Amino acid sequence: MTGTLAGPFLTAPIPIDLPATERVRIAYRRMAAANRPEVWITVRDSTSVLLEAAAIDARVAAGEALPLAGRLIAVKDNIDVAGLPTTAACPEFAFTPDATATAIARLVEAGGIVLGKANLDQFATGLVGVRSPYGAVRCAWDPQRVSGGSSSGSAVAVALGIADIGIGTDTAGSGRVPAAFHGLIGVKATLGLVPTTGVLPACIDYDCVTVFAQELALARQAIGVMVGPDRADPRSRVWPPDVPLAAPSVPRIAVPRPEDLQALEPGYRRAFDVAVADLAASGCRVDTVDISGLLDAARLLYDGAIVAERYSAVGEFLSGRPAGADPTVSAIVLNAGRVAGPAVIDDQDALLRAKAAAGQMLSGFDGLLLPTTTEHPTIAAVRGDPVAINRRLGTFTNFCNLLDMAAVAFPAAPADGAPFGVMMVVPAFHDQVALDLAARFLGQEPGNPLPGNGIEVSVFG
Amino acid sequence: MTGTLAGPFLTAPIPIDLPATERVRIAYRRMAAANRPEVWITVRDSTSVLLEAAAIDARVAAGEALPLAGRLIAVKDNIDVAGLPTTAACPEFAFTPDATATAIARLVEAGGIVLGKANLDQFATGLVGVRSPYGAVRCAWDPQRVSGGSSSGSAVAVALGIADIGIGTDTAGSGRVPAAFHGLIGVKATLGLVPTTGVLPACIDYDCVTVFAQELALARQAIGVMVGPDRADPRSRVWPPDVPLAAPSVPRIAVPRPEDLQALEPGYRRAFDVAVADLAASGCRVDTVDISGLLDAARLLYDGAIVAERYSAVGEFLSGRPAGADPTVSAIVLNAGRVAGPAVIDDQDALLRAKAAAGQMLSGFDGLLLPTTTEHPTIAAVRGDPVAINRRLGTFTNFCNLLDMAAVAFPAAPADGAPFGVMMVVPAFHDQVALDLAARFLGQEPGNPLPGNGIEVSVFG
User: N or C end of chain B: which has fewer CB within 10 A?
Assistant: First the structure.
């Protein structure tokens, strides 16, 4: 895939057959050579990382099976790693946690090695990557353009071949938009499958931990390692017993009507038509559906009352007007404090109805193919218009968590010589269908089913 | 059961072996003789009811299997019946729906006959039965005492032997408290199992349609008829494939610590100890648990931000200050309009955490036995203190829907010569375990499992 669709835009990953110690040394050399200091908020001391890598090499040499042995990880800095500060891209917010987030701890148990904490749109509020006092994160292949956000640093670290796995979060599309801009895979699993213990909430009911990788199989493996129930997370969910494990041999895929695609810039519009044609050519049955209900729901994330969740998360902190607050983020969060309680109830009800309508609209389909985002703006353009462009970028991603859907973002054929990303969107718990469909589109092996099927261990009765 | 525990307080049901027409005639005679006009807001014209009964008799005579043939139903007047006004106990709110609520339509399809629309605490806000301009509903066996509410009329119609099935709703305990005061069965199924299409919301996320009956088997049958997916209800849920169908042979039952029972008046306190002893004597293993987390969660229904749901439902209407508004209800609902959006998010989060904690606390138990309510006040006492007594009455019922639990209320041995009610509380979808445990306690047949197991028909994929 990287050779055909996004290869020119990515630095090839560090070879996986090298010892972990050697991979770490190469990563630090690439980090220095890349000269992208804004990618990181905290880089771990290389000596201690090398010691950790040596220990993993020793365990592998002793015959231990570590599925992610030596895989290098960039962790978005709204996710806790014990001993490293969590800033959420606001210096005054920083604290140093004693415990590592459950999802990251599972990656490390599987042999993964954390390189450091990556920059983000402050408090994970944004899809651009410029809303950070630690610097606007520049696109890996064109420093004039935005990286996408809010998981900006994690995506660029993977695109630059420094990290194998970029861990992000996704509320509005933060784990998918940066994937689209770089030709990466971005997996946003069903809400609750990957625990959010140790993750700073953006919108606590709609936050996911996500994976960026250059290869689908690795992204799938990393998600598989992170999935599983967690008693400390009240939103933790388990696979239902009847979860589908793959798409049928002739999948039926929904695509939007032309009028639903008006937000796309012309090059993206043409590229999406190509992606749909490629999908049909690959043996899928493709049918058009009216996605206006999804697009309406998407607008409720920022323009409705649901934004009150952002005030619940960090509003009190931002009310103190810290110097490092990003002005755009701060305005969004503080305005959210004025939302009325009954309006929250009303919008939650509207979302439930939209979810039911979406389920009926997509009944009989195996997935919905959408463009991931609408355009790839420059940093200057976003600085000149920090809200409207950001809102447009979320046109096709915002509804996903609100309506309890899962999505896999992956590269399609380039648009005007630049990466172009699409998403396979599926209902909750159909994650493996989306991964299977993405693999077929990319001509890759589907990989193993995600683990964790079965019964929760802590139910009452 | 009615003979031993609640018999003296109930008028025996109209014999079921009589033709439906004869049952209807007896019901109207009993209605007149009872002289409790406040029980009903709308009574159907007896001529049309008799025609409907005759049609059912003819279908039964022709061999049709109608599980509820000739069963007479009182419908709480916040639930639509086509052609009859829905008032929610506020005359200015009245409208006449064209469609019957899904739950009632299913009862009628099964041969049930609606007698009329029953009084309630206005907008289903209250546990007392006195908050209605159509009159305070008096307890069936002592007109000085409250009936309980908000499903007041439906419960009294069943206790007086007029209706076989009383249909109520339950948000805070409205389908259980009146059962306790009358020695009735009150079944509050898991949220979403019985559709709420055609039901006026009280708190739209926490409303259930419930059944009162004198016999557990009939209550179970009526619930079974009403359960099932409904595309028009976005909160409709289906049984998971692994739903438990009965309790084990030696059930393990949790009961509260003495300090969790301080809200009980002394007679109720003694009666609850007797109920626990009876449960142990019946072969259950009984263990004490700390239910303070449940009691804390209960207080969030009215004293926290969740009450914003009541403003969403009818706040705009009550803002117009209609003359028929009950002052206590109106004050609660209009105050709820001032709740802040982020406070709703915070309290919803607190409830999710309380739900997770409850699940862990009750892990390994088949059910939790609780007193249904704390005391049986007089109408005069409630009029003198309309909020505090009502709040106390909900001590043990309020948390149930908030924490996604199901409950079956049933009579235990009397307290100081008056009915005393207990509840078997279980997690979502363990309804059949609760019914099974109640049947064992009452020495009745457990009845058939509820129908509707299986896969939803309208899922996407």
Answer: C
pTM above 0.95, yes or no: no
**CA torsion B305→B306→B311→B314, rounded to 10°?**
-170
The string over B91-100, giving b where at least 16 C-beta atoms fall within 10 Å of a residue's C-beta and e elsewhere, is: eebeeeeeeb
Neighbours of A96 (CB within 10 A): 12
Residues 62..121 of A with a Cβ closer than 8 Å to B: which?
A: none
Q: Do A231 and B356 touch (CB under 8 A)?
A: yes
In 3-state terms chain A splits into helix, strand, coil percentages (rounded to 5) of: 40, 15, 45
Please state, in angstroms and rounded to a whole number, the distance separating the CA atoms of residues A238 and A242: 11
3-class secondary structure, A70 = coil
Select from B205, B427, B461 the Cβ nearest to the Cβ of A426: B461
Chain A 271-330, CB below 8 Å of chain B: which residues? Answer: 305, 308-309, 311-312, 315
Q: In what order do the strands lie in the sheet with A113-118?
A: A40-43, A113-118, A72-76, A165-170, A208-213, A185-188, A405-415, A418-427, A367-371, A252-256, A285-289
At A357-385, the pLDDT tens digits run 999 999 999 999 999 999 999 999 999 99
Which residues, numbered 207 to 236 in chain B, qualify as contacts with chain A under a Cβ-Cβ cut-off of 8 Å? 231, 234-235
Nearest CA in chain B to A337: B342
Q: Is A409 exposed, middle or buried (0-12, 13-18, 19+ CB in 10 A)?
A: buried
Contact A312 B345 (CB under 8 A): yes
